[in-house]
Known about the structure:
The chain has a single domain, classed as 3-Layer(aba) Sandwich (Rossmann fold). It is built from three helices and four strands. The chain has helices at about 5-10, 15-25, 65-80; strands at about 30-35, 35-40, 50-55, 85-90. The strands form two sheets. It has a two-stranded antiparallel sheet. A hairpin with a 2-residue loop joins strand 1 (about 30-35) and strand 2 (about 35-40). It is globular. The termini are far apart.
Amino acid sequence: MNLKEWAAANGVGYTTARRWYRDGLLPVPARKVGGLVLVDEPTVPAGRPVAVVYARVSSADQKPDLDRQVARIVTWAASQNLPVDKVVTEVGSAL
C-alpha cells in the first residue's frame, strides 16, 4: 500500500508519515518506487508481541505536540524491538 493509505489507516497524518520515512523513523518497512513511497506491511511471527501506540492532546492548538508524542513512543518501541501494529491518536476537548 502507498504511504498515504497507510497513514490514513493508522491514524497518522500524511505529513508526519512522510517525515518519519525521510528520517528513518517509520515503524514499518517502506521503499521508494519512482515518486511513490510503498509500505510493506510487516509480518509478525505468531506469539510475538506487538504494540498499539496511543497519544492524546486536549485541544487542537496542541496538535504539533501530538506528532512529537507519537514519534517518541514509536522510537522507544523500535529501541525495544517491539513492532508497532497501529498508531491511534486523539485530539479531545478539555471540557
